[in-house]
Amino acid sequence: MTPPVAHKLAKHLTIHDDTRIDHYYWLRERDDPGAIAYLEAENRYTEAVMAPIKPLETEIYNEIIGRIQQTDASAPFRKKDYFYYSRTEEGKQYSIYCRKRGSLDAAEEILLDGNVLAEGHAYFALGGMTVSANQQLVAYAVDYTGAERFIVQVKDLATGEMLPDSIPETTYGLAWLNDNAGLLYVTFDATQRPEKVWKHVLGTSVRDDRVLFTEDDPLFTFELRKARSGR
Asked: How far is CA 18 from CA 6, 13, 23, 24, in A?
C-alpha cells in the first residue's frame, strides 16, 4: 500500500517583519474536506501497516487490563444524611456516582452514570459534579468534543428528571448557592484560562446570569470550589 502524500499549498506567514512559507498550513483547517480526507487516508495507511501486529497489540492490551482492578469503589464520605462514593464496573469505561442514605448498608442510589451519559457520543468527559445543600439536585459539567468546553446541566435527584437549565462554554469549577436556588460556574478567555465566575439562578435564562468575579491578569488563574463544610 502506497503511503499518502500531502500536497503543498504555500502560505506566507509574517511575524516581526520575518516572512516564512508553510506549505502544510492548510492541514490546520479542521473543517477543510481536503484536510479531513488526507487524515483519513493516513489512518487507513497506518491500520494497513500495523495489521500484521494486531494480535500482539491485543495481547499487550489484555495484559495491561489484566493488572487493573476494573470493579472497584472509592472510599465513601459523609455529607449530612448521605454517604457519597463512586465506583467502576468491569467492562465499563466510566465511573458511576452513587450515594446511600444513613448507612453504608442502605440501598444504593445512582446519581450519575458516566457510561449512560456517554452513550451515542464519540467522546465524553465529566468535568465535575456537585450536589446541592439540600441534597435534592446535582449539577454536572460534560464535554462531548474533547475541547474541555463544558456544558453544565442540572438533574432533580428525587424525580430523575433534567431541569431545563443548560449552561454552555464553561470550564472547570461548580458550586451551589447555599439556598439551593442557583449555582456558580466559571467561563474562560480566548486562551481557555479561567476568567470569570458567574451566578446562575435556576429557571432563568443564561443571558441574565451575573458576573461576580473577573481575573483580568493573564498571568493568574483560579479555582472555584466549595469546602465540605459548606463554605
From this structure: 26, 8, 16, 18
Q: Give residue 169's domain range.
A: 72-214
C-alpha cell at 107: 440501598
Q: Which of 65, 82, 111 is the last residue of a domain?
A: 65
pLDDT of residue 228: 72
Whether residues 42 and 148 fall in one domain: no
3-state SS class at 111:
strand
Determine the pLDDT at residue 45: 97
Q: What is the rounded average pLDDT of the residues 131-143? A: 97
pLDDT at position 229 is 76
Q: Please state, for a pLDDT cut of 90, what percent of the chain lies above it.
A: 95
**pLDDT at position 165, please?**
98
Take residue 169 and report the three cell numbers written for it. 462554554
What is the pTM for the complete model shown? 0.80
In a domain, 36, yes or no: yes
Asked if residue 88 is part of any domain, the answer here is: yes
Give which of 103, 102, 75 is closest to 87, Cα–Cα. 75
101 belongs to a structural domain: yes
d(CA 191, CA 198): 18
How many domains does the chain fold into?
2
d(CA 144, CA 127): 11
Contact residues for 30 (Cβ-Cβ < 8 A; gap 6+): 36
Task: Say how many C-beta atoms besides its own lie within 10 A of residue 132's C-beta.
Answer: 20
Q: Which three cell numbers stand for residue 212?
A: 461576580
Q: Are residues 81 and 141 in the same domain?
A: yes
